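hey can u check if this looks right to u? its 355 residues, i copy pasted from the old doc so theres a chance i mangled smth
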Amino acid sequence: MMFFPRPFPSSCVRWLSACGAALLVAACASPTSPVSAARPAAAAAAAPVKVKVFVAAMFEIGQNTGDRAGEFQHWYERYWKGAAPMAVPGALQPVYCNADGVCGAVLGMGKVNSSSSMQAILLNPQFDFSQAYYVISGVAGTPPARGTIGEVSWATWLVDYDLGHRWAPEENKPGEPTFMPRKGYEEYRRFKLNPDLVGWAMKLSSDTPLKDSDSARKYRLRYPDAAARRAPFVGTGTHMTGDTFFHGPGMSKQAQYIARLYGADDYVITEMEAAAITLVIKRTHGTDRVTSLRGAVNFDQGNPKESTLQHLDPAPGETAGGFAETVENIALVGTRVVDHIVANWPQWQAGVPKP
């Protein structure tokens, strides 16, 4: 039984019978009561962060600042140094936000890990993603015929490498593909990203001065391809998402076959998350505001003088180099776009302007 300190008007009695005592307290408390006095403060505390840009990284090596940088550290040091972490149940790491509406988090490596974190963050009531742009950011591999160590690439297409049937080459006619798409995955296996947004990304960042290293320069000379020997640059193309860390000229040829089979551009990047994260975003907010930004830290196959296994398991001192420079390059390129969107938010909040 509940006891009230004073008589209630007849209107409140009707509320009690219709809605229960809990609603009665909220509806009939006087303006000076503790319940109504606390309500504005509670509502203010519960107001979600209006996200303008969300930056998704896949891993960090150690701390978010002050040590060897992984995929998140340069972003963190630019936008969130000193920001309070916001825990999200179901996400791998907390989310950080600044006063300008730029938020970011480490989602985890691989399709399941990263997409489950993204789903938890998107559905968390602490955030309002209704007008958000996304930068899916990280390191990657590249085929030597298309890219080089230290380059940074904006995706035009995202293609899932895994949604299909595969079989051993010896069980096929020589030279024929050993991959067949599985029916029913047409809307899951490839995404064409907004060409206007890609155009803006290139317009804003294509002339970014990029870092390089002596070790990367020396390593590139092992490859005969003109693209592999290039200095780092900003480019575009298809990003191939696969939980399988495919490697070697045979697997690279198959990846290119899949990209062309799906009507995408030539693949220039191999990575493990973007298509899965984009599917999660698509189901809640669509893909018009999604970008994928990757920096190449390795070639997806060895040079003509080494086997695939030798390339996968190099001897000491035989690695590509250039990792530190590449993760810095990714942030140098990406922050140009993030900063422009935030600085010109009245022109961007309703959608991507025409380039």
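The mean pLDDT is 88.
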